[in-house]
Amino acid sequence: MNYRHPELQDRLAAEYVLGGLRAGARLRFIKLMRDDAGLRRAVAEWEDRLLPLALALPPETPPAHVWRAIAARIAPAATAARTPAPPRGLTWWRALSAGLATAVVVLAFLMLKPPVEPVEVRTVAVLSNDKTPGAMVVNTLPDNRLSVQPMQDLIALADGRALELWSISPGQAPRSLGVVLPGQTTILAPSLLPQQGDTVAITLEPEGGAPNGIPTGPVVLSGKVI
Questions:
Q1: Which residues form the Anti-sigma K factor RskA C-terminal domain (predicted)?
Q2: For labelling alongside 162, which of 1, 84, 150, 224 has CA 20 to 30 A away?
């Protein structure tokens, strides 16, 4: 594989910045970056594109139950500070008993808790246009479904029409992957995932999607399969 090819460098840099590279591939990419100024430049460009999108997200206020939980944890400590200390020997035994009890609970939890399998997500494509770089990210999930995530609110781009996702193989007709929501992540289950060399695109279609499975509206976002 020619890692000095500009298009491949751009795709790998996008997947690296978005966190889509697996552990081994990520380590190899980091090693390649050390000796390749082109890769470092591509990563910096993708970071510059996506950082404003992350900073544009509104701050989240913690739910009320989070604050109540914090207060509940702090209150016992404050009460204990006002309570006269028991005799030194009794304190030592209480601490030892509490420590053993905690250890038993933790050990039982670790033994009974089923192992959590990490969800392996792979970035398929990053969709952009001239005015909106990195507007949408398409990922594959372990069950071969697609997770389509807008990186910003695309309601204005949709302008009241449906956003339909397409996979376009060279020399073949576009294949609909489904209609996506402009303001939140959409999970799709196409019969065939986008393949290497395909272009993934978004068109504006009538409500419910393109009639007869043929795109009718303009392409507003597109990107090559990584």
A1: 99-219
A2: 224
Specify the 3-state DSSP secondary structure of 153.
coil
d(CA 212, CA 218): 16
Question: What's the token pair of residue 118?
Answer: 């990490």
Strand ranges in 57-142 using DSSP code E only, listed in sequence order: 122-127, 136-140
Q: DSSP E strands: which ranges in the chain?
A: 122-127, 136-140, 146-150, 162-168, 175-180, 186-188, 199-205, 219-224
Give dist(CA 163, CA 13) in Å, integer.
Answer: 27
The token pair that represents 76 in the structure block = 């016992």
Distance CA 175, CA 41 (A): 34
Distances (CA, A) of 64 to 44, 73, 75, 153, 194: 39, 15, 17, 27, 43
Which of helix, strand or coil describes residue 189? Answer: coil
**Residues 216, 108: Cα–Cα separation, whole Å:** 59
What tens digit of pLDDT does each residue of 94-145 get? 544 445 445 445 545 555 555 545 556 688 888 988 888 888 899 888 888 9
Q: What is the DSSP letter of 128?
A: B
**What's at 21, amino acid-wise?**
L
C-alpha distances in angstroms, 112 versus 102, 118, 220? 15, 18, 50
Mean of pLDDT over the chain: 77
